[in-house]
Amino acid sequence: MTFKFAQRMGRFEMSPSARTSQRARELRALGHDIIPLSSGEPDFATPEHVVEAAYAAARAGQTKYTTTSGVEALKDAVIEKFRRDNDLDYGRSEIIISAGAKQVLFNVFMATLEAGDEVVVPAPYWISYVQIPQMAGAKPVVVPCTADSGFKLTADGLAEAITGRTRWLVLNSPSNPAGAVYMRAELAALAEVLRAHPHVGVVTDDIYEHIVFDDREFATIAEVAPDLKARTLTVNGASKTYAMTGWRIGYAGGPAELINEMIKVQSQSTSGPCSVSQAAVLAALEGPQDFVPQRAKAFETRRDLVLSMLNQTDGLKCRQPEGAFYVFADCHGLLGRRTPEGETVQSSADFVRYVMDRHGVATVQGEAYGADGHFRISIAASEGDLTEACARIQAACAALS
């Protein structure tokens, strides 16, 4: 049988980081020495008390369907988390629990976007901010943000991007892939622009909230501009803070009428999230938090290691990320050079392929994030692996002519 695929399939692709990570696993299975720095996943273990809570829930028979929007106890824990960490007050009807923060994004964009609508997305961006709106038939309006602006959207850039068709602005702080953190004054400036455009809502992805460096203070836009809370969806989850990527639980707080429509979408896609995973995240949110800043400090140390080595490398330069666990390296200085095999490095994709195939380090090309001439390195790896990986990248650069 020859299948006829929907036209919308041509509008999006598999996650490049997932594809690169899969390629790295395949090469390692064949015996190749690959250091995988392509995955956005903490290398720490899920805390033991969280694992024990999941085990206890399973033993107690909590293995049945749950309410589509999540169990009440976890909603209450999320409400308390938002109050404790972000000074935001929500009721149960304003909370949704989903199978990961990505499903939260899928829910909101599918519930609100139609053909012709626009979504403002600062670049570099996480690819799903662009691909999911396209899946819904909308148009991403990508605003390039350079290293000079800290890879952050400015008020002027936002004002120029908004049209009568704009439905959402997407913010991500700390950001993937650039590690940019919006300060309160910067969020306040964006909020001032948004006040002049009441038809525009904000989806803010705060998934890296607790991974901030150099004693910075995290802030989210509904906290900084309370008058915008009624048109803001604040997205978060357990995957990065608690090293629970495989447990697949994300959540969000937002206006009840929006949450209700998102629940409709979820009811026809996955239904309620995993019961045992919800018990685990409940334990994570209500349990000890002392290890969270300790892990952030470990990422900061790794960041400094990678920056020190790569910024000494001819053809590379790296802006210091302020949070998350990536270094977004600028490789424009290498474009146009030739590999020992005589191939010209014409893009960051070419460079990433060369570094993995010839030198055994898996990273992700900047094109995936709307920023060619860069590549993303995950620092969620041991200091030993990072040191060796950077040495290999240095050798790869030195071999170019």
Describe the fold and architecture.
By secondary structure, the protein is of the alpha/beta class. The chain folds into 2 domains: 7-45 and 291-398, Aspartate Aminotransferase, domain 1, CATH 3.90.1150; 48-286, Aspartate Aminotransferase, domain 2. The chain is 39% helix and 14% strand. Strands 2-8-7-6-5-3-4 form a 7-stranded mixed β-sheet, with helices on both faces. α2 (48-59) packs across α10 and α4 (101-112) packs parallel to α5 (128-135). The longest helix is centred in the C-terminal third of the chain and has 20 residues, at 291-310. The protein is globular. The model has no long low-confidence stretch (mean pLDDT 96).
Label this structure with key terms.
401 residues; alpha/beta; Aspartate Aminotransferase, domain 2; 13 strands; 14% strand; globular
What are the segments in which pLDDT stays under 50 over at least 5 consecutive residues? none
Annotation, overall tally of beta strands: 13
In whole angstroms, the N-to-C terminal distance is: 50 Å
Helix content: 25-40%
Structural class: alpha/beta
Major sheet: order of its strands?
2-8-7-6-5-3-4
Main sheet characteristics: 7 strands, mixed
